[in-house]
Design brief:
The protein is mainly alpha-helical and 127 residues long. It has helices spanning 6-18, 26-41, 46-61, 83-86, 89-107, 111-126. It is globular and about 35 Å long. The N and C termini lie far apart (65 Å).
């Protein structure tokens, strides 16, 4: 009985197709973070401002980031490991500054100020 040489190749192809695609897309992660920063700036309650800022921060930092909040939604979970780690080194400093802005906005107790800070985060990300 002869074995087909195509069998191992077919098996490898099936395994490859079954594996989840985890190609990092830093550009999309940045867009998603900016979207959530904008949603934070348009929110009606401080709770929602903070929720969307957490989403933006999670997109920027990724699950291994120091400020990543596992209790908050990570809308970028299928886009990569975070905009900062997925970006080229030359882009990271600006993204880290945006993450720092988001973190400061999270700590702001005044809703109007927190919303204004969230708007600045969005503008920083859209540059």
């Amino acid at each position: 009985m002869r074995k087909s040489a195509a069998a191992p190749t077919l098996g490898a192809l099936i395994a490859l197709l079954a594996a989840p695609a985890l190609a990092a897309d830093a550009t999309q992660e940045i867009k998603t973070a900016a979207l959530h920063a904008g949603m934070a700036s348009a929110s009606d309650t401080l709770e929602m401002v903070r929720a969307h800022l957490h989403h933006a921060l999670n997109c920027l930092e990724g699950p291994k980031g120091a400020q990543f909040d596992a209790k908050a939604i990570n809308p970028c979970k299928d886009q990569g490991m975070g905009a900062i780690p997925d970006s080229p080194p030359a882009k990271r400093k600006a993204l880290e500054a945006a993450a720092s802005q988001a973190n400061a906005a999270l700590a702001e107790p005044n809703m109007a100020k927190a919303k204004a800070m969230a708007e600045q985060v969005q503008k920083s990300l859209l540059k």
